[in-house]
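Methods — Computational structure assignment.
A single polypeptide chain was analysed. Its primary sequence is given first, followed by the predicted tertiary structure written as structure tokens.
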Amino acid sequence: MTIQQAGSTLDDIAALLAPTLHDLGFDLVQVQLTGGQRRTLQVMAEPLDPAAGMTVDDCAEISHAISAVLDVEDPIPGAYSLEVSSPGIDRPLVRAADFVRFAGHEIRAELDQPHEGRKRLMGKLEGLDAEENVVILIDEAEWRVPFARIRKAKLVLTDALIAAALKGDSGAPEARE
């Protein structure tokens, strides 16, 4: 999240919004700014309690609260739309803790540069080791990739992930209306 955006980085925006989200009972997952002339600030959040689900009303409450912060601080010059969402079942993995929390599930990861000849990996997430390497089981071989080298990662929608979500397993977001 360290893309420069006209004087503010997305990390700065995340740091600005995180306390408000926390006060509302949510954790910031990711902030992205997309688009060219019609830009969208995408804010992804989840409940602090991993067993709790997220509703449309939660997204509306978050949107209202962070809109006020963004209006006062004005970290993004020009016009943009605000979009608030939950990470969903096949969520992105962005924090080191995500790679621990979702161990046992299938992931797809893209690296900043090739590691052992591969830039894209897909396999079973084994977790994070003591040296902060993400451990992925690919074709029965254990791959260890430094967390800092992971550009993008997300869970793969599988029957096991859906079953965990329906059970309310803390290792996967719970589906809730």
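Note: The longest helix spans residues 56-73.
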